[in-house]
Amino acid sequence: MPARFQFRFQYWVLSVLMLIVLSLTAGFLFTVFGKFQSMMEDNARERFSLLARQSIEATGELVGKAGLIAGNRAEDRRPFDPDGAVPELLASLAVNPDFYGQYFGLPDDGFVQVIGIRGDSRLIETLQAPADTWFAIRRITTVTGGERQERWTFLDRHRELLGQRENAARFAPTSRPWFQSAMKNPGLAVTPPYLFASTGQLGLTISRAVSGQAGVFAVDINLSRLQDFLGELPLSPNAAIMLLDAENRVIGYSLRGEAFSALAIEPLTRLDAILNPTLQGLATLKEQDGAAVVQLAQSGKPADFVVVRQLSEAFPGARFTVIALAPISDFSGPIEKARGDVMAVSIGITLLLVPLALLGSRRVVHALAALARNSERLKRLDFSVEPQQPASFLYEINALGDAQIVLQHSIRDRTSALNVAQDKLQHLVEIGLMLSREKNREKLLRHILKSAQEISRCAAATLYLKTEHDTLRFALRTASDDLHDFEVPLHDPVSGAPMTGYVSTYVALNNETVVIDDVYGDTRFDLSGTMQFSEKTGMRVVSMLTIPLSPREGEVIGVLQLMNALDPESGVVIPFAPELVSFVEALAAQSAVTLENVNLLESQKQLMDALIKLVAGAIDAKSAYTGGHCERVPELAMMLAEAAAAVDSGPLADFRFASEDEWREFRIGAWLHDCGKVTTPEYVVDKATKLETIYNRIHEVRTRFEVLLRDAEIERLRAIHERGEDAAAADARFAERRAQLLDDFAFIAEANIGGEFMAPEKVARVGQIAEETWLRHFDDSLGLSQEEIRRRGPFPAQPLPVREKLLADKPWHVVPREPGRQTFDPAHGWKVTVPENLYNFGEVYNLGIARGTLTEEERFKINEHIIQTILMLEQLPLPKSLRRVPEYAGTHHETMIGTGYPRRLNADDLSIPSRIMAIADIFEALTASDRPYKPMKTLSESIKILSFFKKDQHIDPVLFDLFLTSGIYRVYAERFLKPEQIDEVDISRFIG
C-alpha cells in the first residue's frame, strides 16, 4: 500500500548534501596527501645523496692517496735505486694499512717488492713466511750464468729480521699488464679491480713509469676497507648501497631488509648479473649523477624507490660509481602519522554527518531495500517469492515498485517457456553432436530413434527407411518384440499410382510432416495397421507424429513415426504440441543428413574396396605366374593379424588394431601389396628361358644352326661335283660338321633352359660357340619398330652379304635407362643398386646367366615392382585412416636383419603388420599351385622352407611360431590348397 502522504524525489536533497561533503573531504585529502608525498621524496633524496657522496669521497681518498704516492715516486729526481728505496717503502706500508704492497719492476725483469703481511695467516702460509711476519721483501736479480734468482726477506713488526729464503725466479714483471701500461702511458696506469691471488681479497694496482723509463713503480691497494665503510653507513631499514667500478662490477656493498637478507654478491659481479630483480633493474637506468624516484621490482610487484648515483674519477682510469637506493616506504613514518591524523579528522566529520543522513532517509532506505531485494531475485530469475510492494511517501519509489511486480510476473512466465525451449535446444545440439560422431550405421539408427523419443516425450517410436525398390522398410522401433521384415510400397505395383492412403507413405511421398491428435477419430488415412498394433501390444495409440527424413530438398530417405505424446508431469497421453513439432523436425533433418553421410561413406568404402580388388584381380589375371596371389595374401594376412591381436602375453601382447578403420587400413594394404606389378612387363615376369623376350629367341638361333648345316651340305656337294674331291672324304667332313652343329645346338638349347647353377666352363663354351660365323644376305634393318630403329640409329648398316657371329651381343641389344628419372631418388630411402641399363638382350650375355633365366637388369625390374607400389600409394591423397597403407603394402620384401629391399629396413623399423605381410607373401608363393615355372609343393615342404626364412632371420620368429601353433597354416591350406598338397606337418620341429 502506498503511504498516505507522498512527495516527489527531487525534493529530497539529503543525497546531494552527502555528495558535497564527501567531495570536499576527498579533495582536501588529495591535496594534503600529495604534499606529504612530495616532502617524503625530497627527504629521501637528500639523505641518500649525502650517503652516496660520503662513499664516493672515501673511495676517491683511498685511490687518490695511492696515485699521489705513485706519482711522487715516479717524479723523484734522485738517482734510481730500488734497493735503496726499501726502507721508505716499509715506512709507507706501516702508515697505510690499505696498501697491500709497493714495488719496482725493471726492464731487465729485475724486481723489488715490499708486502705488508701484518700477521695475516693466509699470506704467511702462501709465502712460506715465519710466524709473526709483518713485512716481506722480495728481490729478483740475474746471477752469474744468466739465471734469475728470487730472494725473500721476512721482518717482524719492528722490522727485525725473522728469516730468508731463495729460489729460482719465475715471475717476470715486464709481462704484467701494470708494467706494460705504465711504460706505454706517460701518466698513471690503473688496473681494473681484481682478486689478489695470495689473499683472495679485492684490490687494484696503480703504476707509473719512473723518470727516464728506468722502471715502473706500482702500488697494490686493498679495497676491503671500502666494504667495511659501506657496512657502517646509517642506511634505512630496506636500503642498499653498492660501489661499482668502470665496468659496472660490484666492488663493495651493504644490504638491509628482508628483500636483500638472503642475497650474497660475489666480488666483481656485474650489476646486471645480480640475482635480484630490484638490483638488476638498476642496470637499465641511465648513467648520470643525481637522485631520482623510479619504479623497480620488489617482491614481484613494482614499487617506488629513491635511487642516488654518484660518479668519481680521481684520475684517468680510476672511475668509480656509488649507487644507493631505498623504497619510499622507508621514509614514510612521520608522513604516515600526519596522514593518519588528517584521515581521522575527515572520518570524524563524515561520521557526524552519516547519522544525520540516516535519520532523514530511513523510510526511503526501507523502500529502496525492498526494491533492491525484488531486483536481486529478478536478476537471478528467482520467482519462488512474490515481489514485495514498497511502502514509501515518495511517488517515484511507489511507481517503480508497481512496474517491478508487473515485470517480474511477465518474465517468470516467459522464462519458464524459454527454459523448456532451451532444454530442448540444448538436447538437440547434444544429439546432433552425438549423431555426427557415430560412424556405425546400426548404432546411428538406434540413436535417432531413442533421441526422437526423448525430445518428444512419447511412448513409442518407429523408423522406416526407403529402399532402392521404392518401398518403406521397417528398420527399427522402440518396442522389444521382433520386427517383421515387412515393406510398404510407395506406388501401386500395377498402375504406378502413389500410395498416399497410409500416413507413412503419404509423408514419404510428399515430404510433409503429419500430426494426428486422435488416431481413432482421424479419417484422412488408413490407420488400421496402427490399431492392430495397439490391440497386439496392449498400448492404445492415440496421438501420432510422422516426420520425413529429408537430407536435401525434395528427397526423402526415411520416415520417423512417434506415438502417444506424454504429459511431463502426469504421464497422461496428450496430443503433440505445435511448438514441439519444430524441434522434432530439426532432429529429423539432422538425422537425415547424418544418415545420408553414413550411407555415402559406406558406399564410398564399398566402391573403393571394389576398385582395390579390381586392381588386385587385374594384376593376378595379368600373368599366370601370379594368378590368385593378390587375393590369397590378404586372406592369410588377416588370419594371422587376428591371431596376433588375440595374444595377451609376450612380444605380441601390446599389438592391437584399435578400430575397424585400422583393420580396414591393413586389409587394403594387403590387397595392394603388389599393385606395382602393373608396371612390370609380362615377358619379364613370365621369362621361362634365358633367350625369351616377347618370344623365345632359341628358334632364331636354331635357324642359324640350320643355315650352317645347309652351308655344310652345300660345301660337301661342291667338293664332290665341282672340285672332284673324294666323296668319302667329303661325306666324312660333313658328318663331322653335322655332329658338331647338333651337339653345339643341343648345348645352347640346354643352357637356354636355365637352372640352379651354370659352371664357368659352360659359360666359356657358350663364348666359343658364339665365335662361329654365318653369312647373312638379307638387310636386318628392314621391318623394324620405331624403338628398334632408334636403338640402331648410331650404327650404320654393313654392305651385304655380311659374315656375323653365330651368337652375338650387339650394341642395339642394350636398352639404356632413361636419364633424369626420379624413380630411384635416394630421398625416398631406397637402398638398391640400380643397373646401368634398363635391359640387355645380348644373346651371349643372356645365355651366360649363372642362375635362373633372368639377367641382372630383369631381376631388378621384377624387384622394382615394390618400389613402384610404394611410389604409387604414396602419391595417393589417402585419408588419415589409410595413411599406413603404403607401409603395409611396401615392406613385405624387407627382412629382420636389414638385407631386404627396397629400403633394407631391420626389425626396429618393421611394425607387426609389416612382419605379418612378409610371412603371408612368402607362404602364399610357396604353396601356390598355379605357377607354371615350378611344381607345386606340399604343405610340409612349404613350412620347412618357411622355417629356413625364420632361421636366416628374414621373418619374425614369434609370428612364425604363432602361425604354426594357432593352426592358421592348416586353415589356409584347407581353403586354398589342392587336396594332394595337404599332408601332415610336425610343427614341433620348427617351433622355438
Summarize the structure.
With 992 residues, the protein is an alpha+beta fold. 45% of the residues lie in helices and 15% in strands.
SSE order and pairing:
Layout: H1 14-74, H2 86-95, E1 99-105, E2 111-116, H3 121-127, E3 135-142, E4 148-155, E5 161-168, H4 177-184, E6 189-190, E7 194-195, E8 202-209, E9 216-222, H5 224-231, E10 240-244, E11 250-255, H6 277-282, E12 290-298, E13 301-313, E14 319-327, H7 333-379, H8 395-437, H9 441-456, E15 458-466, E16 471-477, E17 487-489, H10 503-510, E18 514-516, H11 528-537, E19 544-549, E20 558-566, E21 573-574, H12 578-622, H13 629-645, H14 660-671, H15 682-685, H16 698-721, H17 727-753, H18 760-770, E22 773-776, H19 786-792, E23 802-805, E24 814-816, E25 837-840, H20 843-847, H21 856-874, H22 885-890, H23 912-927, H24 939-951, H25 957-965, H26 968-976
Antiparallel strand pairs: 1-2, 1-9, 2-3, 3-4, 4-5, 6-8, 7-8, 8-9, 10-11, 10-14, 12-13, 13-14, 15-16, 15-20, 16-17, 18-19, 19-20, 20-21, 22-23, 24-25
Helix pairs in contact: 1-7, 7-8, 8-9, 8-12, 9-12, 13-14, 13-23, 16-17, 23-24
